[in-house]
């Protein structure tokens, strides 16, 4: 097996760093902390879940608007890493600030969470675009899958520490409240995220770029218009983005809303944390497995598998009632969560011109993030109308069905860019 380069290892390590945010803030500790704060303030379970969904929708809308514009500007030489650093810093600082917000201020918690989510998601736009800079096309499936796998493994370490602090506080073994323990978890996340991002900042360079020119902002908007036309010109790319728009919406919504959903089912916070930890452990090897199987069966066929698994998840979620049911649901998600995300990223990276990676990943972001507005809103509205979180999750099956139908229609084609030069002038 080929030995990984320093650039590939540094790129992969960012997933190790940022996944702590994904599990502790997006999925586990923060949602439980927020739900408790909202409940203490007299907000009903269905309403607090809906408000969290609306908050996720707002954050993703902001990035959906900014992604293509910033991505186009970031294609200029030396700009990509600057934009990455801005959003990375916003995410880390906002995550740390969550620890200093009074626990009874549930609305302020959601506002700060919005900034943290914008920072995290914005950094990921440019991190994803760095994939074309660190590895050749034939290794993209493997490297992308390794990133998600290392992310799952790495996130378990700060997660275990956070769980330990929370459980010890709950059992009065350490003299702090559960509230303080949760806030310590927020600080652990920020520190972990910051430290393990250093290798990427040090070792990863923007190899593919457009030479700087006068009036870069004006010219960026011109290139943005050209890119819109190019996306429509490449049928495979355009259809893939449409399919991605629908199925990744369901994936992202299940990730961001899973803990709130489990809380509504009456599952204890301790059980939820343990389930989420095991989910991370199980997901790591499955992400690698998806990457390996894609080399044998193609990435597109493995995407079919992931979408079908998620359809089963949505249907099963409607009927679950017990903690055991939630365990089964979580393990089903673990088999495909990392694989479907990793292969989507690498499949798209193979279709786009490398020197315009940020620009095209900006559209990848806008399709993904606009879709992420629809999913949480769908869950929120359905939950409020029916008074059932189960029905809200079931409604997501429609998104996977549409995504699968469109993905089947994506024509097979060779990668669109074999150019190995480091820059291009336009």
Description:
This protein is an all-alpha fold and 426 residues long. The protein has one domain: Growth Hormone, Chain: A, CATH 1.20.1250.20. Helix content is 80%, strand content 1%. The chain contains 17 helices and two strands. Strands 1-2 form a two-stranded parallel ribbon. The longest helix is centred in the middle third of the chain and has 31 residues, at 140-170. The protein is globular and about 60 Å long. InterPro entries: Atg22-like (IPR024671), ATG22/LtaA_families (IPR050495), MFS_dom (IPR020846), MFS_trans_sf (IPR036259).
Question: How are the elements arranged and paired?
Answer:
Layout: H1 6-27, H2 29-40, H3 45-74, H4 80-97, H5 106-129, H6 131-134, H7 140-170, H8 178-195, H9 198-203, E1 209-210, H10 216-233, H11 235-264, H12 269-297, H13 299-319, H14 323-351, H15 357-386, H16 389-394, H17 397-408, E2 423-424
Parallel strand pairs: 1-2
Helix pairs in contact: 1-5, 1-7, 1-8, 2-3, 2-5, 3-4, 3-5, 3-10, 3-11, 3-15, 4-5, 4-8, 5-15, 7-8, 7-12, 7-14, 11-14, 11-15, 11-17, 12-13, 12-14, 13-14, 13-17
Transmembrane segments: 12-34, 54-76, 83-101, 107-127, 148-168, 180-201, 237-261, 267-290, 302-320, 326-348, 360-379, 391-410
Main location: membrane
Domain Major facilitator superfamily (MFS) profile: 1-414
């Amino acid at each position: 097996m080929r030995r990984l380069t320093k650039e590939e290892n540094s790129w992969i390590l960012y997933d190790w760093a940022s996944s702590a945010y994904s599990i502790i803030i997006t999925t586990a500790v923060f949602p439980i902390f927020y739900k408790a704060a909202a409940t203490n303030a007299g907000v009903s379970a269905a309403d607090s879940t809906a408000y969290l969904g609306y908050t996720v929708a707002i954050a993703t809308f902001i990035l959906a608007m900014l992604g293509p514009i910033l991505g186009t500007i970031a294609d200029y030489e030396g700009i990509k890493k600057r934009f990455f650093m801005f959003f990375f810093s916003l995410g880390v600082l906002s995550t740390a600030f969550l620890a200093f917000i009074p626990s009874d201020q549930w609305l302020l918690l959601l506002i700060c969470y919005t900034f943290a989510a914008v920072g995290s998601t914005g950094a990921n736009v440019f991190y994803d675009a760095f994939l074309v800079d660190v590895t050749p096309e034939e290794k993209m499936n493997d490297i992308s899958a390794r990133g998600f796998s290392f992310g799952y493994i790495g996130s378990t370490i700060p997660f275990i520490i956070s769980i330990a602090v929370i459980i010890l506080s709950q059992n009065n073994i350490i003299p702090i409240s559960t509230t303080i323990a949760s806030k310590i978890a927020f600080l652990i996340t920020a520190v972990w995220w910051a430290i393990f991002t250093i290798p990427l900042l040090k070792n990863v360079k923007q190899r593919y770029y457009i030479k700087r020119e006068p009036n870069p902002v004006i010219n960026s908007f011109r290139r943005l218009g050209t890119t819109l036309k190019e996306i429509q010109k490449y049928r495979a790319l355009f259809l893939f983005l449409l399919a991605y728009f629908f199925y990744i919406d369901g994936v992202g919504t299940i990730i961001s809303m899973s803990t709130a959903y489990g809380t509504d089912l009456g599952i204890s916070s301790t059980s939820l944390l343990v389930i989420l930890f095991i989910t991370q452990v199980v997901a790591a090897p499955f992400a690698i497995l998806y990457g390996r199987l894609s080399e044998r069966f193609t990435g597109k066929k493995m995407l079919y598998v992931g979408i079908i698994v998620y359809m089963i998840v949505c249907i099963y979620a409607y009927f679950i009632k017990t903690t055991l049911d939630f365990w089964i649901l979580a393990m089903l998600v673990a088999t495909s969560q990392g694989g479907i995300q990793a292969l989507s990223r690498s499949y798209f990276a193979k279709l786009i011109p490398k020197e315009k990676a940020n620009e095209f990943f900006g559209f990848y972001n806008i399709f993904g993030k606009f879709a992420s507005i629809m999913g949480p809103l769908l869950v929120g509205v359905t939950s409020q109308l029916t008074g059932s979180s189960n029905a809200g999750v079931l409604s997501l099956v429609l998104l996977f069905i549409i995504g699968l139908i469109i993905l089947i229609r994506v024509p097979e084609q060779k990668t669109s860019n074999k150019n190995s030069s480091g820059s291009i002038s336009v």
